[in-house]
Amino acid sequence: MKKILAVTACPTGIAHTYMAAEALQQAAKEKNVEIKIETRGAMGIENELTAGDIAEAHAIIVAAATDVEESRFVGKLVVKVAIGQAIKDPQRVIDEALAMKPAAPDYIDQAAQSKEPKKSQITGPYKHLMTGVSYMLPAVVAGGLLIAVSFIFGIEAFKQQGTLAAALMDIGGGAAFALMIPILAGFIAFSIAEKPGLAPGLIGGMLASKLGAGFLGGIIAGFLAGYIAKWMKENINLPKNFAGLVPILIIPFFGSAIVGLLMIYVIGSPVKAIMDGLSSWLTNLGTGNASMLGLLLGAMMAFDMGGPVNKAAYTFAVGLLGSGLYAPIAAVMAAGMTPPLGLWLATVIAPKKFSVEEREAGKAAGVLGISFITEGAIPFAAADPFRIIPSIMAGSAVAGALSMVLGATLKAPHGGIFVLMIPNAVGNLAMYVLAILAGTIVTALLISVVKKNKTSV
Amino acid sequence: MEISNILKEETVNLELAVSSQAECLHVMIEGMEKAGFVNDKAVYLAAVNEREQKGSTGIGFGVAIPHGKSSGVAAAGLAFARLAKPIDWNSLDGNPVQIVFLIGVPEKDAGNEHMKILIALSRKLIHEDFRKKLLAVNSAAELYAVLQSI
C-alpha cells in the first residue's frame, strides 16, 4: 500500500496548520490510505517525519506557507499545495499525491538515505541504555578525575578535614559519584518514557546507589521506572480536565512509589543477602589457596564495580588488611585497576569497536584505572554488559591471581599508582606491576575480540 | 482547562443578526468585554483585523475563526456566534459564514493551554458532524456540552 506523508504549516500556526492536518487525516481515512502528518504550528513541530518515514513514503504533501525544511525531501515525490487547498479539498490533494509516479530510479534518494546517521537504527532497550550511559559518562569522568587529583596530595590526604584534598574527594566521591547511578537510571527511564520517566528513574537510581546495588541495580531501576512511566502515560485516561495531572502528579507519585518499593523490597533484600553470603563464604574459604582466592577476588571486583559483589570482595580484603594480611588487598586493588585500564587499552588497539564518545572516554578511563577508580569502566560495562563484564572479570581474575601467586602485598586500602610510588607500601613491586599489566592486556584482548565493530551495529 | 472558563454566557450569541464582518466582530468583542476577557476593545480589534488581513480566517464550510493575541486581552477567552443570516467572510471556499468563533489570547500568555483548546477546536471544525451539532445548539448550556467533547 502506498504511504503518504504530509507537512502542514501556516504563519500564525494557530488554526490552519491543524485544520489542514485534520482534513488530510480524515480524507486519507476515507480512502483507506496510510498517512503521517507533521504539524508545524503554535505547538512547535509535532509528529515529526523521520528519515525512515520519508524513505518509505510514496509521496509527500507540503501544505505550507512557511519553510518546512523541504531539503529533507530531496529525491522524493512532493505535492505542494496552498494550505487552504488542503482544508477545502483534501480528497483531491491526496489523489494527486497517490497519482504521482517516480521519474527514474532515485540515486539522490539512496545517497541521502545512506547519509542518515547509523544512530537512528539503534532502537529498543539498547538505545535506552546508551542514552543513560551517555548522560552518566561526564559525571563518571568528572568524579573519577577529581578523586584521582585528591590522591596526589597523598592517599589518605582527603581524610584531613578542611584540606583541598578533602574538598576534591567530596566533589568527586561525595557528589559526582553519588549522582552517577541516579543519572544512569534517570536517563534510561527518560529515553523510554520521556519527561514523566525522569523523576522515577532518578529516584530509583538513587535508591540503587544507597542500597549498594551498584550500576546493575541502577540499570534495573532505570528500565523499571521507564516502562512503568510509559505504561502509565499510555494507559491512564482521566477526563480531559484532569489529564494534566497525569504527567505532573500521577506518574511522578505512583511511578516513584512503585519503583522505590520494588527497589527496596525486591532488589534491596537480595543485594544484602548476596553481600552477606559472599562475605561469609570468603571468610570460610580462608586464605589457604592463594591463587584461587586471588582469582575469585579479582573476578568479584570486576563483576559489578561498586555493587554488592564488588563490595563483598573489597570489604573482605580490607578486613584482612586490618589483621595484617597484606596479599588479598593487593590482589583486590590490582583487579580493580585492570577494568578501566584494559578498556583504555582496548580503545587504543581496537578503536573501531568503540564510538567516538567511548574512545574519548577511554582516555579518562586510563587515568581512573591507574588511580584504582574501577568506576571508570562502568559506562562501558553498562553500554554493553554481556560482552564487557565477562571480559573485565577474566582480566581482573588474572591480575588478582597473579598478584597473589607472585607474592605482592599492599599496606594501604586504596590509591592505585600513587601508592606504588610510596616506598615500602607495596611488597614485591615489580611482580605487582607485572600482575596489573597482565590483567590489563588480557582484558583489552578479550574486549577487542568479543566486542562487535561499531560500524556494523 | 474548563471550557466554561473561557466561554461565558455573555460571549455566546445564538441568533445574531448582523450584516457585515465588522458589525459581527463589534458585537462579539462587546460580549468579550462584558465577560471580562477583554479590557481594551480597540487594541484587541486591531489585532484581530491585522490577522484577518494576513489571510482570511474563514476556513470554509460556513465557519470563521477570527483570533488575536493582544495586550487588550485580560484573560484568554472565546466567543461564539451563530448568525441569523450568513455573511461574507472572504472565506477560502468563497461561501458565506454562519458560525464564528472569536478567540482572544493575552499578549503575555505563558501557558499554552488555550492554544491547545484552540488547536483541538480547529481540528474538530473540520468534521461535519461537529459543525452540524454547532448549528443545532439551542442554549449556551448545549454549546458547552458540544465543546466539552473536544
What does this structure look like?
The complex is a heterodimer of chains A (457) and B (150). By secondary structure, chain A is an alpha/beta fold. Chain A has three domains: 3-116, Rossmann fold (3-Layer(aba) Sandwich), CATH 3.40.50; 123-267, no CATH class; 286-457, no CATH class. Chain A contains 18 helices and seven strands. Chain A has a five-stranded mixed beta sheet with strand order 3-2-1-4-5. Chain A has a two-stranded antiparallel sheet with strand order 6-7. With 150 residues, chain B is of the alpha/beta class. Chain B has one domain: Mannitol-specific EII, Chain A, CATH 3.40.930.10. Chain B has six helices and six strands. Chain B has helices at residues 3-6, 21-34, 41-54, 113-125, 128-136, 140-148; strands spanning 7-16, 58-60, 63-64, 67-70, 77-87, 97-106. In chain B, strands 1, 2, 3, 4, 5 and 6 form a six-stranded mixed beta sheet that branches. The longest helix of chain B is centred in the N-terminal third of the chain and has 14 residues, at 21-34. Chain B starts with a helix and ends with a helix. At the A-B interface, helix 1 and helix 3 of A face helix 4 of B.
Overall SS class of chain B: alpha/beta
Number of separate structural domains of chain A:
3
> How large is the radius of gyration of chain B?
14 Å
Q: Give, in order, the helices and strands of chain A.
A: EHEEHEEHHHHHHHHHHHHHHEHEH
As for the number of domains of chain B, it is: 1
Percent helix of chain A, as a range, is: 55-70%
Envelope shape of chain A: elongated
Q: What structural category characterises the helix and strand content of chain A?
A: alpha/beta
